[in-house]
Every structure is written in C-alpha cells, then in structure tokens.
What does this fold into?
Amino acid sequence: MPLSYLDALERIRCEAEQDAIAFRSGFERLSIDKAVSRISQVTYRCHEATPKYDTSAMDGYALNSAATQSATPETPIIFRVCGTIAAGDEPLRIDNGTVSDIPPCVEIMTGAPFPQNAGDRQFDCCVRLEDVTAISVSGYPCIGIRKPATFQQNRRLAGGDFSPGDIIISAGQVIQPSHIMALASVGIMEVHVTRKTVVGVFSTGNEVERVCRRGQHHIADANGPYISASLQAQGSEVDFLGTLEDNSDAITHGIRAASNTNRYDVLISSGAVSAGKYDFVPSALQNLHVRQVFHKIAIRPGHPVLFAKIPISARKAVERGVRGDRYEVPFFGLPGNPVASAACLQFLVAPYLKHLQKQSPEPVLEATICQFGDSKPPDRALAQLLLKVPKDLDVFRPGVTQRRIADHLEVTPLEHSSWKVKPFLEANCWIHVPAGQSDVYQGDTVSILASH
It folds into this structure.
C-alpha cells in the first residue's frame, strides 16, 4: 500500500530538520539594500531610542505653550525669533542673556530637535508656520500668535518610535521592505542572512529537448524551465544541469557527478521515476546505494514521486559542514508530466525547503468551490457535483480563485489532465482534496494554496 501524503510530509520534515543542522550554520553578510526577501540569520534590536531627541512634527516655531493662553486674533501674543534649527542640527540652546522681555521662540523645521530650555521658559510645543504672523518689533524678527497653543503640540517625544531593546526583525524572518525601513531608521545598514538554498535540476528523456527542431518527434522541455523558475521565485539559487539520456549508466553518472560537486543542497529530476521500460532513475539510484525515504505515495497527480538521500564521502561531508553519521545529498525524482511535476514541487519539495530554512509552511486558505458565475445553492440536494476523486488519495487540482465579498473566497476547478499545460497557465491556486473525501459539490468548502 502506498505511503499516505501526511506520512510522506512527516518523513520530509524529519529529513529536513536533520539536514538543517549543517545548512543553517552558513550565512552571508549583506548591505540592507540587497537583503530583501532573504532570511535574517540573527535577531536585530534597536540599541537606542528613536528619535534621540524631542523633535518637531511640523515646520513652525518652538515656544512655550503657557505664554500663549491669552492669545486672541485681536490681542496676539508676540514672540521674538531667537534662531533657526533644521533637521540634523544639534539642539539649539537659548541662554538667559539672549532673552529680552519678549518671550523667545525658535524657528524649527520638521524633524529638527527641540531647542533646550531658556531659564524657566520651556520650549514645549510647535506652532505651525501657517498659524503665525511674521512681524518686526524694534528691528527684531518676531511672530504673532493669535490662538492658544497646547502642551506638546506638534512635538515628537524622544523614544516615541523605537525604544532600546525593541525587536526590528527576528532570526528566521524573511526580510521585507518594511524591515529595511526600520533597520535603516535605527542605523543598522548590514545584516547577516541565511545563505540561499542551492538546487541542481535535471530533465530526463531522449525525447526531451530545450528547443524542438521542426519535423522531429521530440517534446519541448517544460519541466526543467518551470522547476528552475519556480524555485528561483521562492528564493533558491538554481542550476539547470541538462537532460539525462534514457539509460541507467548516463543517469547514474549525471547524478553522481552533481552530488560530488559539494555545491547542491538538493538535487531534482523530472521524469523516468515510474515502472516503465525507460524509467531508469530508480535503478540509477540503486547503483548509487541511496537511502530511499519513499517511492510512490498516495497522491494524484504525482503518484510515482521519489525521495532519496545520496551518500557522499565523509571528506565532502566535512567540507559541507555536516557533522554526525549521515553524509547525504537529498534527491527528489518528480514525475514527467508537467502538472504532476508541478504538484510534487509545490506539495513535497517546497515543504522540504521550508523546513530546511526553518520557515513556516505556505498558508492554507479555505474557499467555497463553485463554477464560474455560480453561487452557493440554497439546498445541497440541488448542488452540482464538481469533483469526483479517489477516496484513498490526496488530490491536487489547479483552480482559479476570486474574492466575492469581504474575506469570502470562491474557487473554480479547471480542466485537469497532468500533461495539459494550458489549464495550469490559467490557474492561480491549487485545490487540495484530502484523502477520505471523494465527492466535492458546488458550495462545499475546500483548502487552497497559492501556486507558483
């Protein structure tokens, strides 16, 4: 009896967590402008309060709010302008000798530090430029305030944004543009990130060509480019290693050579994993004395998928940073039909890579299944049967999802055959029907995952 999908996922998790011990020891140091979408290796915290000083939220005048309480349009309060301070300047100090019988104020720009107090006159607010009248008194520049100001009006307090010890990004988080803004605002301009996973990708088959020549009965290689592009979109560095010929020796040699380069965290092939006359990947792996984790699981499409660990020498293991008794390179053998290969990449390879990097799995959403333009019927007895699948298999189908109202999602299954690429092009998600469910009716709730 084939291994269940859930059991396969558990084996993948266990293998990935073992492999992660060596993988997570590697890191890179990057400028933050090159760190978007990378995984932070460490937790970064703010070391000092931001802003460092009380700063102005407006262009205007810093002054003492208590001195304005009797201000009216008919009897404005006059302040003498004793200086100007811009963002980036050191805080300005107004000495007692600078102050006359007219209360002082300081012209201040947005982001500039508030001036230090003048005697018992505290600069505790900012009146914006539009709310003052510029005048001259005895040749001195002054302003008139025509309405009372409030305490700490338009004043940003020191530490009002980040406080010392605040976490900017935690170890294991994917760095987003918002993290870059926060890191830069607290003066962190370089970060340590987990190195990218490096994946080697093979296609297989004498009939497969990257570019088909006119008049020949060859098949264009869709899997190699798709697998490479999808993994790159998910953050991996990918090498396409070519197409392996349909014989056991060639496949054995190609896989052995790649595993011995000491470069790849994972190797992936597509095609030649079933039980046909030209399915040589299983026998090639036997030649390499692999440890087979599983071969054939209870899913559709993708039933013949294979996961194995290729042994490498102890010397190469040490070069890779591996410690312990297992010196192995993970290998996924995916089916040859394009949509089957894509399903196995999404539901088996991607979880392995997520666990390897200590990342959360792809979010699973719920949606109401329906036909295009239809709504949920009022009576299940009237509902149309949309999917009939084997009850003993986990089934994956391409679908199109759309948001109808609020957070309610609806999904429509597309025509499916594992060799047809056109329906997959139109899809934006996968529908997952778990083992134990065979009939899916219009209006039923199903699980969906975004497709890559």
In short: Helices lie at 5-23, 177-185, 223-233, 248-259, 281-287, 314-319, 338-356, 422-426. DSSP finds eight helices and 28 strands in the chain. The first strand starts at residue 27 and ends at 31.
